[in-house]
């Protein structure tokens, strides 16, 4: 653990103990604590402007995307299309409106969302620009690459199909 200059490990542990609640709550207390937290969150959210809500939702999507692309595990549900659909929902855009905003055909957008087509570099850059650089093009690109890496690593059908194109394989295997 990295400890800033001026703090000993002992002081850091003491601070953590002072800050963290270490007592176990009864089931009734836990229900009440959850209710209070939900009420506080609802109050905070109701006081937010539409702009603040959009910022919070964009950041949440960005952090979810970042967390997923940095994980080693692959999840079939969390595709480029899934995150693109989430993006459209949180910015409250219809597909035809959004397609016009990034200058692609609505059919192409539908194919991207439904994972029937892989986005090229221009699409991921347009997504970055559309989000005003909130969600970097590299995040969208790494999402696509994670999906490709999974397919390449696990597809027996792909290997079988490509095997017929390879002749004179090496006689050694490491």
TrEMBL record:
Listed name of the protein: HTH cro/C1-type domain-containing protein
What species is this protein from?
Chitinophaga oryzae
Name of one Pfam family that matches = HTH_3
Q: What CDD domains does the annotation carry? A: HTH_XRE
Recorded superkingdom: Bacteria
Q: Supply the InterPro entries for this chain.
A: Cro/C1-type_HTH, Lambda_DNA-bd_dom_sf
Gene3D superfamilies linked: lambda repressor-like DNA-binding domains (1.10.260.40)
Domain HTH cro/C1-type, first and last residues per copy: 84-128
Coiled coil ranges (UniProt) are: none
